[in-house]
Amino acid sequence: MSNVRSDKPFTLAGRTFQSRLLVGTGKYRDMDETRQAIEASGAEIVTVAVRRTNIGQNPGEPNLLDVLPPDRYTILPNTAGCYDAVEAVRTCRLARELLDGHNLVKLEVLADQKTLFPNVIETLKAAEVLVKDGFDVMVYTSDDPIIARQLAEVGCIAVMPLAGLIGTGLGICNPYNLQIILEESKVPVLVDAGVGTASDATIAMEMGCEAVLMNSAIAHAQQPVMMAEAMKHAIVAGRLAYLAGRMPKKLYASASSPLEGLIK
């Protein structure tokens, strides 16, 4: 069959990862819960808000890297809390200094504090500077297919359109735009923001996303560690379903067993 899908490794910046679940490190009750949830998720990539989390810039304070060591996890510094390109670029350069030349970053430039919607104009400006500066840029963006295309064209290694607004748990609000991005993109597409529960993650993977990044869906669950494990299985199930190819939808029923050869 010519339309059979074959799996391919999940690769970013020349590194291959087994888990297609990326997780944030904020919003947990304490660092111990952070550690437990991330272990349960099976994630290999953890994203860290450099402006809000100590990864060495505040000596004497608890350091996240003590519970999530870089020799076990790939640390993905992000620019959460930045509202213009200059701030975002400065934050990425600080992260590279703190992490001994680490170039993999997640770029996000926000428009306002109410929606946390991406400012795509400032995001494009920052992306161009960071790519020229040698960063491997994964970029949080709107679900606009044209902007996603432009971000890939300037050299971002992955585009990360929102499924819904950050922290809302609304799931995939506009699957049609996401489908266009997936069909057109020449770089990995990861859903970022809006996931609320395991089924949301599964749907994103069934659509063909390379991976899903989430934080609030796990950290704000009534039992974060249990939800983290649920998300691990949801990602695997969604990927397998995408590769398997679902049955066609039909208006009317069809018998599960053949009618030929029935005893009369």
Task: Give the SSE map.
Blueprint: E1 10-12, E2 15-17, E3 21-24, H1 31-41, E4 45-49, E5 74-78, H2 85-98, E6 104-107, H3 120-132, E7 136-141, H4 145-153, E8 158-161, H5 175-184, E9 190-192, H6 198-207, E10 211-214, H7 216-219, H8 224-244
Parallel strand pairs: 3-4, 3-10, 4-5, 6-7, 7-8, 9-10
Antiparallel strand pairs: 1-2
Helix pairs in contact: 1-8, 2-3, 4-5, 6-8
| Poorly predicted regions | none
Q: What overall geometry do the principal axes of the alpha carbons give?
A: globular
Mean pLDDT: 94
The major pleated sheet works out as: 5 strands, parallel
Share of helix among residues?
Answer: 25-40%
| Major β-sheet strand ordering | 5-4-3-10-9
Radius of gyration: 20 Å
* Percent range for β-strand residues: 15-25%
Number of helices: 8
Quick one: how many beta strands? 10
How many angstroms does the end-to-end distance come to?
37 Å
Secondary-structure element order, N to C: EEEHEEHEHEHEHEHEHH
Structural class: alpha/beta
